[in-house]
Specification:
eight-stranded parallel β-sheet; single chain; TIM Barrel; binds iron/sulfur cluster; 2 domains; 13 helices; five-stranded mixed β-sheet; 15 strands
Length: 379
């Protein structure tokens, strides 16, 4: 059934709200979806094109890595063309953070405990404070500090949380609280346990992710299970799905996770059957074409594409647009009611037109486009 009448998420955990450029993270703001470019940041044209593609797919925030000064200096021109706020990913070298801030970056991902003396941290914090730029502390189970590993024996949730708290304390000592935190591991269980633990101890917004999750299929499944568990518990303010795949897929998977829980509602929600010998038109091929042709639609239009009358009318009645396979002719539904017959050859074109029209009606009624996040995520 389309829609989300049956909320399964617990009330969202209360977190502080921070701002990454114009995008709010935490508090009552919608859970945001992030991804990261995998171009050479020094290649301004290629990186800008990928930022555009990610934003077009719905990314609310995009991270770019700044491994050297040339990359940090490319932040300015990339940001000037970027439709969404950008976050610089920096490791170890505080000068790169200062350069990226100088270039107008909207957010930093840097671990204050890894950049050396307190004075260096203080310099970065001063520059970040001046520009109201938040800092994400990103703990990764694969790169925990040696002393923590020695004490805990191996990477584990308690060590990850201790690492995060150490980094947090450094910023708090400088009275800086524009912070969000991630605790990523490649194992779903460790990731979930770490976030649960930290969420009971701090009220900073949490950036969720299962790191190095693998390729498109296994990585999506691991991310959906891990992030899904946490989101159901009200934990998580922003997320990234990490895939060894096109970053655009990360954004799509992130949104599908949020949509499946009723926490965001961007884009067309296609309800389609798994197909069997009863199908009256080639459902899989039609759905593949529709996914591609409708990727640009932001409004939450429900579209059911069902191969026969067994389940078709029931789903179509719950959808803005629907088609039900029928012998000879398929039946087109609009707003839950049958409105005409549809030959196989016209299926894709007609459904694209119908969904675009439904999206336009929605846009006219609510220029905010995506529509409000459901109340369940906003308590
Ligand atoms: Fe088969 Fe019809 Fe079910 Fe689709 S809806 S899987 S065609 S029985």
């Amino acid at each position: 059934m389309a829609g989300h009448r049956h909320a399964i998420t617990l009330p969202r955990r209360a977190t502080r709200e921070i701002r990454v450029g114009r995008v709010a993270v935490g508090g009552n703001s919608p859970i945001t979806v992030q991804s990261m470019t995998n171009t050479d940041t020094r290649d301004v044209a290629a990186t800008s094109a990928q930022v555009q593609a990610l934003a077009a797919a719905g990314a609310d925030l995009v991270r770019i890595s700044c491994p050297d000064a040339d990359a940090a200096l490319a932040v300015g021109p990339i940001r000037a063309a970027a439709p969404v706020p950008l976050i610089a990913d920096i490791h170890f070298d505080y000068r790169l953070a200062l350069l990226a801030l100088d270039q107008g970056i909207d957010g930093l991902r840097i671990n204050p405990g890894n950049i050396g003396s307190r004075q260096r941290v203080a310099e970065v914090v001063r520059a970040a404070r001046e520009r109201r730029v938040p800092i994400r502390i990103g703990v990764n189970a694969g790169s925990l500090e040696k002393d923590l590993l020695a004490r805990h024996g191996e990477p584990c949730p308690a060590a990850m949380v201790e690492s995060a708290l150490n980094h947090i304390r450094i910023l708090e000592d400088l009275d800086y609280r524009e912070i969000k935190v991630s605790l990523k591991a490649s194992q779903v269980g460790m990731t979930v346990a770490a976030y649960r633990l930290l969420s009971r101890q701090v009220d900073y917004p949490l950036h969720l992710g299962v790191t190095e999750a693998g390729g498109l299929l296994p990585g999506s499944v691991k991310s959906a299970v891990g992030l899904g568990l946490l989101l159901c518990e009200g934990i998580g303010d922003t997320l990234r799905v990490s895939l060894s795949a096109d970053p655009v897929a990360e954004v799509k998977v992130g949104f599908e996770i949020l949509k499946s829980l009723g926490l965001r509602s961007r884009g067309v929600d296609i309800v389609s059957c798994p197909t069997c010998s009863r199908q009256e038109f080639p459902v899989i091929g039609v759905v593949e074409q529709l996914e591609e042709r409708l990727a640009h639609v932001r409004e939450p239009v429900t579209l059911s594409v069902i191969g026969c009358v067994v389940n078709g009318p029931g789903e179509a009645r719950e959808s803005a647009v629907g088609v039900v396979g029928g012998a000879g002719d398929n039946l087109l539904y609009r707003n839950g009611a049958p409105v005409g017959k549809l030959a196989d050859a016209d299926l894709v074109e007609t459904l694209v037109r119908e969904v675009e029209a439904a999206a336009a009606r929605m846009r006219a009624a609510d220029p905010a486009a995506e529509g409000p996040p459901p109340a369940t995520s906003q308590q």
